[in-house]
Design brief:
Strand content: under 5%
Order of helices and strands: HHHHHHHHHHHH
Number of strands: 0
Helix content: over 70%
Largest sheet: none
Structural class: mainly alpha
Number of helices: 12
Distance between the termini: 41 Å
């Protein structure tokens, strides 16, 4: 039962799916290992949306609707972190001021510009990929962020990010890596390039965050997810 509730906790945290199952912090602590599964669920639903929308609408409208579906499914959680991180990091302020900016509820010009670029790339890339790619892209982007807590610390005294940094397990990451790499090799070997790109981007993002604010936060995790999302989409348009 705890095993299943850990999966449910990952889906409850990473998505807006209405799962009427009560979970607690112990389940949430073990849910990190199931972040890739939550991403695959999001990718599968977006892929199904892409198929359905393409049967009714022009590809451009379908792309916009899939983006809207994605943001709804994830509650805009990762995009919020993406925008907060851009606002903070590009402010060129002190470490303490950057952390304050990332906590502010207002949205700055850097965040708007970053979100606009994100939208343009995703909008243009979606018509050029297969729907199955979305399962891999969203699964790998969530898997890749589980590497960061094993290397980087949390720079604040408290927060959601601190909880996950403290509960990340090296053995869990290694097991997941082996299973994911084997699965991608079996399904479609070129997907291994996506795995390598996702992990490299996660390390680069984590290192940048460490340099800017002394570690990683929930916001920088969202930034990493959405950055990997874009990178893997662009990669999918190349190998297809």
């Amino acid at each position: 039962m705890n095993f299943l509730k850990s999966i449910v906790a990952a889906l409850q945290f990473m998505t807006v799916l209405p799962l009427p199952i009560k979970t607690d912090h112990s389940h949430l602590a073990r849910s990190i290992a199931w972040f890739p599964l939550a991403g695959m669920v999001v990718g599968g639903l977006c892929g199904a949306g892409l198929i359905g929308f393409n049967r009714v609408f022009d590809q451009r409208i379908s792309s916009a609707l899939v983006i809207a579906l994605y943001l709804i499914l994830t509650r805009g959680l990762h995009m919020d972190g993406f925008m907060d991180t851009i606002d903070g990091f590009f402010s060129r302020k002190s470490r303490e001021r950057i952390l304050d900016i990332m906590k502010e509820s207002t949205v700055g010009s850097f965040a708007v510009l970053g979100a606009g670029v994100w939208f343009l790339i995703v909008f243009a890339a979606l018509p050029q990929i297969h729907w199955q790619d979305l399962i891999v892209i969203h699964g790998l982007s969530r898997f890749a962020i589980t590497l960061q807590p094993l290397i980087f610390s949390y720079p604040r005294q408290s927060g959601t990010g601190k909880f996950f940094v403290e509960n990340a397990k090296t053995y869990s990451f290694i097991i997941e890596f082996i299973l994911i790499a084997a699965g991608l090799w079996y399904i479609h070997p070129p997907y291994l390039k996506s795995l390598a790109l996702a992990l490299a981007a996660s390390l680069a993002s984590g290192a940048w965050s460490h340099r800017m604010i002394g570690g990683i936060t929930g916001d920088t995790a969202g930034f990493t997810i959405e950055t990997i999302h874009v990178i893997l989409l662009l990669n999918a348009t190349i190998y297809l």
